[in-house]
Write a structure and sequence with these properties.
Helix content of chain B: 25-40%
Number of domains of chain B: 2
Helix content of chain A: 10-25%
Distance between the termini of chain B: 47 Å
Radius of gyration of chain B: 21 Å
Shape of chain A: globular
Chains: A alpha+beta, B alpha/beta, C alpha/beta
Structural class of chain A: alpha+beta
Oligomer: heterotrimer
Number of strands of chain A: 4
Shape of chain B: globular
Distance between the termini of chain A: 6 Å
Strand content of chain B: 15-25%
CATH topology of the largest domain in chain B: Rossmann fold
Radius of gyration of chain A: 11 Å
CATH architecture of chain A: 2-Layer Sandwich
Number of domains of chain A: 1
CATH superfamily of the largest domain in chain B: Thiamin diphosphate (ThDP)-binding fold, Pyr/PP domains
Number of helices of chain B: 12
Order of helices and strands of chain A: EHEEHE
CATH architecture of the largest domain in chain B: 3-Layer(aba) Sandwich
Number of helices of chain A: 2
CATH topology of chain A: Alpha-Beta Plaits
Chain lengths: 67, 355, 247
Amino acid sequence: MKKLVIYKNRCKACGFCIDQCPKDALSFGEEFNDSGYAAVVSDENLCIKCGTCYRVCPDSVFELIEE
Amino acid sequence: MRTLMKGNDAVSEAAIRAGCRFFSGYPITPQSEIVEYMSWRLDEVGGSFVQSESELSGISMIYGAAACGLRTMGSSSGPGFDLIQEGIGYIVSAELPTLLVDVVRYGNGLGEIVPAQSDYWQVVKNGAHGDYHCLVFAPASVQEAVDLVSHAYDKSEEYLNPAILYYDGAIGQMMEPIVLPEMKEHDPDQFAWSIKGRGGEPQKQVTSKCYYEYTTPESYVENLRTKYAAIEKNEQMWESYLTEDADLIIVAYGIMSRTCKEAINVARKQGLKVGMIRPITLYPYPVNAFASLPDNLKGVVSVEMSALGQMVEDVRLAVNGRKPVYNYATGKMIPDTEEFISYVKNVLEGKEESV
Amino acid sequence: MAKNLVTPKLISEFNRFCPGCGHGLIAKMIAQVLEERGVEDDAIQVYAVGCSCFISTVIKADSIQAQHGRAPAVASGVRRARPDAVVYTYQGDGDAAAIGLSESLYAAYRNENTTAIFVNNGVFGMTGGQMAPTTLEGQKTATSIYGRNTELTGQPFKLAELIAQMPVAYVERCSLANAKLIAQTKRAIGKAFDNQLAGKGYSFVEILSPCPTNWHMDPVKAYKKLEEVVAEEYKLGVLKDSKEDSK
């Protein structure tokens, strides 16, 4: 079972992952991270663990690991 | 074993024997023999030579190789040495050693290819921006140039600061009998700082030391002050010649000191008590040579092959108002003995104006 | 078990790039490429001046900061001093195409066995978004406030095409515009390093990258602009591959 890990404090809320996600599973969160950005969150019901967000994120916010 | 060699060739061979294994440069008279010599000689000893597209690029390659711990050398003259200044500034800021040779030609801009000493300000005061000096060595003979090469490398590595061998086109071009030093090996990995890929160690950064090592304003300033104070305290080199009883002291370096020495010998035979201080290091300036001046001394004359007289500023600082200082700047001419002695007589008779 | 997708060990947790800046993404791909080939401990990166200079704080490989524009020359010295190292340059467009054009061309001309990563975002980023040689016609920048006038300043500068005229191993222009093109960019970076490891000579990868801050755009719109506007001027693809050329 793969798990999407989101390092929310690395996120700068550029939104590129949200734009590129093939399943529209990502969105800006309600909470601000330590740098004051509305860090991205994932909808577990929509995410297919394809790794696109990992590949496009400029700030290494995502990791996809086997649980 | 004594051998007869041209100054530029001898300096090149001395660098090879001191362990220099990287050279990059661009032809310009009167230093081109160094580029030519290194082009084949480095290959023989397993080193690398690159004839660069410009001096800007050449000094950059030297910077890269020096960062890897190699003994490196660059050389140029006049307008070419201008372009090297950018790289000197960065090598200074990253605290790396290298040896640069400035074979001085005369004049501003493109100028002329004849020998001169008119780049004193550039090499001694600093040609790039910022707070620094290069170690500057001014040999008066081919043998002394050869001997200073190895010393300059050692000091450059000791203080992590570029060194410049500064001589005029005459010393670069003339042949003299010399004794070359033995071949020395240099291990680039002997330095903790030398770049080779992490190899499992933490990342190393070669850049201005203010970013990683001396990160507070205080430590950065302290490091620079400590380094240059130590150089000024420990590294002054000069030759004093017949100064103890002198009525007049000549200050001259490089090729000009040889003319002056001959003139002093002739003057002494005429009863004129003239002596000489010959700076061998121009930075640090040998102020200790001026510490005790004879009571009977009437003045100090700075002699230099430049139009304005550049070193005379440092002579004045070293004399510090104790005696009158005279500026005998010869332009591109090496004065003959007669002319020089008549100037000396004029000074002693109070017919010349001090600066 | 499928391979985990994790942050490369060479990459530092945080970087100083603006939101949406392409530099972080390119850095991550370089680090991945080095680690996938097991050469991260042999890597020496040479960078110079501009936003690209933050690379040494993002990729924790041994690093040398060159004078502005001189990274290819510094890397040429490193290449000779360390024949076994993996040597690469990382430069922006002002750095490599303006002040350092001569060094860029001559490193390629000598076919140095190094890898050059060239990030083209069309502006001088760090100094506040001034016009670069790569700025598009009509593009407003801090030194072309009415839009770049190509009559006076010349056409957008095609460094990859120039490098491809040299006797080099490989030249490709890539883009970060979308996930597919990013994957292609990573393949190109990989090939550029494989060439070096095989001793094939100089490999040059130009990467079209967004500068949302100085383009004064929302990051997502900046990535869209790469696809819709920038790629019209800067054609993607392989411009030189010496292996294919020799077929």
